[in-house]
Design brief:
Elements (H helix, E strand, L loop, with lengths): L1 E6 L2 E6 L6 E7 L6 H10 L31 E4 L10 E8 L3 E8 L4 E9 L4 E10 L5 E12 L5 E8 L2 E9 L3 E7 L12 E4 L10 E6 L5 E7 L5 E7 L6 E3 L4 E3 L3 E6 L2 H16 L9 E3 L1 H4 L5 H14 L3 E4 L29 H9 L3 E6 L3 E2 L4 H5 L17 E2 L5 H17 L4 E4 L11 H18 L4 E4 L17 E3 L6 H11 L8 E5 L13 H9 L2 E4 L8 H23 L1 E4 L7 E7 L5 E8 L21 E7 L14 H4 L3 E4 H6 L11 E9 L2
Parallel strand pairs: 20-21, 20-29, 21-22, 22-25, 25-26, 26-27, 27-28, 28-29
Antiparallel strand pairs: 1-2, 2-3, 4-9, 5-6, 6-7, 7-8, 8-18, 8-19, 9-16, 9-17, 10-11, 10-13, 12-15, 13-14, 14-19, 15-16, 23-24, 30-31, 31-32, 32-35, 33-34, 33-35
Bound molecules: (2R,3S,4R,5S)-2-(hydroxymethyl)piperidine-3,4,5-triol.
């Protein structure tokens, strides 16, 4: 059978007529193709037979293995006791297809392994693939790896993926595709700060607005790998899958393992084209609970100093500037004075909070805000009542090293799981808590535990969401070490990084939002001098940086001036006005990175309006910087572009602003704004301006 899936300008052609399902095409939609044309295409795609190679053409199947002549990384490996290490030879037995999906059934010759591949091309053009492997033999099957591999054309010769460290997540890195394997592996038990995040491979120099790209992300919060491999014969594959440790996935007779979904997408309009498919799809399947309120988080405001008077003043000022949700961060539970102790003891600290959290929660509510609480349910401090009472609930040997003075709670232990669920349920029942900031501050580093632990976390999150329909959850992991499409459908917000320095934050948010829609992207207005980098920045730059996302404040407002608070209040009003646009529109980014600046924004679904940020990250390349070319507007429609004031005036150099800014705006067609652009203001480094674009009529 031939499978032809089409959606939103993308398509997949699969030749499922032989023993192995072969991807003939993944990329642009090929218009209407009838069955004979599809057959002709599939037949014509059979390659030549080169010298010193198999005597039959090497066609890349969905599960390439050595049995088919593929000497690259195989899509599956594993063994039984009565076999040596082996790569099972799975052959197609049945295909079902619909207009948008296909289900392929494969079996080994001896019938002991059965594999089902689910393929879906969503209406946004996102291609999802996963495998389900079932052991139908009479003895155990030890699965070593099962991955999703897709061929990409030779023109895809440049890779872009990510790395990073704590507070500097999602640093982009580019490399040329060469013969061999570019493989990124995460063994943190969470994706980690250096997560490859989205593995993109495309035409050389692809950018936000141009180039063809094929991209893959594994929707999984545990260990994983993604890679690009080019075989000397010229085949290039894009792959991803869960990273299993030896012995971790033993399938007893009748047991099944389902891979996480590989979420992939193709674009011929650069990274923005990928993001628009991915964001639209995520919004479809996992709409974040909205509207995303403006948060005040106490962490960088007070750290562990949970002094009632200080917090009361913070509550009052938060309400005064228009904050909608007050979040009490780390430090509220029994014995938690610093990060060295008490994780697991999820009872309100009686010394610091003699009357419980009630008075604080009441104050927050009386001032019209919602209350949120920090938790770190998957962890336990060795110095805690919990660890002392239940050492058997702590994962790994007792002498294994701690990380941030903490260990991991074994959530696969039914009693440990029940304890955490009970404690969280009790807190959520006792107090009207609208939001949990769910933290995860260490790598797991326990061989063989990650898969089940990750599943248990998903179960826990899902159970709480089911039980508390109003509850919002944020995924935080020492900042942005757990942001992936496995956890995203279970949460409403992600904490992109602990770094609130706007200069770093611009970069982190730019790249995190390649995958994550803005309504999920937590970003906070921090202190004048950033706590992590020690760098001072202007308020207007910090305000603009925290605006395009799910905005919040993480600053001790009791130390701010009335003028600063007035600016914050006006900024929050602006955020509330723009929130719907920001959280439902299309994210667009000009390719200005090499100019030391970003110009990016959001355009609404009908092309009626847009909002843009210009952020300067470095000194301009020339006295008169290149024009601002506003991407994403309807080419034929006329738009009025105006500056939107945001906080104190920005720092500029030179004698006069460009004419269009002096006159307060200009009206031009979208095509002109994108192709010719408007003269840029002479901003000093580390400044930002906001612009609106409104269509005529
Ligand atoms: C790490 C988080 O990323 C911070 O925002 C803060 O919540 C601390 N943990 C608290 O311990």
């Amino acid at each position: 059978m031939l499978v032809y899936l089409r959606a939103a300008g993308a398509s997949l052609v699969l030749d499922a007529r032989g023993a192995y399902p072969v991807v003939v095409h993944w990329g642009r939609d090929l218009d209407d193709l009838n069955e004979p044309s599809l057959a002709a295409l599939a037949d014509a795609a059979v390659p030549a037979v080169p010298s010193s190679a198999l005597d039959v053409p090497l066609r890349l199947s969905l599960l390439p293995t050595v049995a088919q002549g593929w000497s690259g990384r195989p899509a599956i490996s594993g063994h039984r006791r009565d076999e040596g290490g082996s790569v099972p030879d799975l052959r197609l037995v049945q295909v079902q297809r619909s207009a948008t999906a296909a289900v392929l059934d494969l079996k080994t010759k001896d019938g002991r392994l059965r594999l089902t591949t689910d393929i879906e091309l969503t209406r946004q053009g996102v291609l999802r693939v996963r495998h389900r492997l079932r052991n139908e033999g009479a003895d155990d099957f030890q699965l070593a790896s099962l991955d999703v591999l897709l061929p990409v054309p030779t023109e895809a010769s440049e890779i872009l993926d990510f790395t990073g460290v704590w507070a500097y997540e999602r640093r982009p890195q580019r490399t040329r595709v060469r013969d061999g394997l570019w493989s990124r592996e995460s063994r943190h038990g969470r994706p980690g700060h250096n997560d490859a995040f989205l593995m993109m491979v495309g035409t050389p120099g692809f950018g936000f607005r141009s180039g063809r790209i094929w991209a893959a992300h594994l929707a999984w919060s545990g260990d994983k790998r993604s890679w690009v491999e080019r075989h000397p014969l010229g085949h290039t594959v894009l792959g991803c899958g869960e990273l299993l440790t030896p012995g971790e996935m033993r399938l007893a007779p009748g047991e099944q393992y389902a891979t996480p979904w590989a979420v992939t997408a193709w674009s011929d309009s650069g990274i923005d084209g990928l993001s628009s498919r991915l964001h639209a799809w995520i919004r479809d399947i996992a709409p974040a609970r909205r509207p995303a309120p403006v948060v005040l988080n106490t962490w960088e405001a007070v750290y562990f100093d949970h002094d009632a008077d200080r917090l009361d003043r913070l509550v009052d000022l938060a309400a005064e500037v228009g904050v909608e949700r007050f979040v009490l961060d780390d430090g509220w539970f029994t014995g938690r004075r610093d990060p060295r102790r008490a994780l697991g003891d999820w009872y309100v600290d009686q010394d610091r909070w003699p009357a419980g959290l009630g008075p604080l929660v009441d104050r927050v509510h009386q001032r019209g805000m919602d209350f949120g609480l920090w938790v770190e349910p998957e962890m336990v401090s060795p110095d805690s009542r919990l660890a002392r009472a239940h050492p058997e609930w702590v994962l790994g040997p007792s002498d294994s090293p701690t990380w941030r003075w903490q260990r991991v709670l074994d959530l696969t232990h039914p009693d440990a799981y029940a304890y955490v669920l009970q404690r969280l349920t009790a807190l959520l029942t006792e107090y009207p808590i609208g939001y949990l900031k769910w933290d995860h501050n260490r790598d797991l580093l326990h061989e063989g535990a990650t898969h089940r632990q990750t599943k248990a976390v998903y179960r826990l999150l899902a159970a709480l969401r089911d039980a508390f329909a109003h509850l919002h959850i944020e995924s935080c992991a020492s900042g942005g070490a757990r942001i992936d499409l496995g956890i995203l459908p279970l949460v409403d917000r992600v904490w992109a990084s602990d770094n609130n320095d706007p200069l770093e934050r611009q970069r982190i948010q730019r790249w995190t939002s390649v995958l994550v829609p803005l309504e999920y992207l937590g970003g906070h207005l921090g202190d004048t001098t950033a706590h992590i980098t020690g760098r001072a920045s202007d308020l207007s730059f910090r305000l603009a940086t925290a605006l395009l996302g799910n905005a919040g404040v993480e600053w001790d407002l009791t130390r701010t001036t009335p003028n600063e608070r007035a600016d914050i209040a006006r900024w929050i009003v602006r955020y509330k006005q723009l929130r719907h646009l920001l959280h439902t529109g299309t994210l667009v980014r000009a390719d200005d990175d090499r100019l030391g600046r970003y110009l990016y924004g959001v355009v609404d679904a009908h092309g009626d309006c847009g909002v843009y940020v210009l952020a300067t990250l470095a000194p301009p390349e020339s006295g008169l910087p290149a024009p601002l070319r506003f991407p994403g507007l309807e080419p034929q429609r006329r738009y009025t572009v105006r500056p939107l004031p945001l906080g104190p005036p920005v720092r500029t150099v030179g004698e006069a602003a460009p004419a269009w800014l002096r006159s307060g705006g200009v009206t031009l067609p979208g095509r002109v704004l994108a192709e010719v652009g408007l003269p840029a203001p002479l901003l000093a480094p580390a400044q930002a301006m906001l612009y609106s674009a409104e269509a005529d009529g």
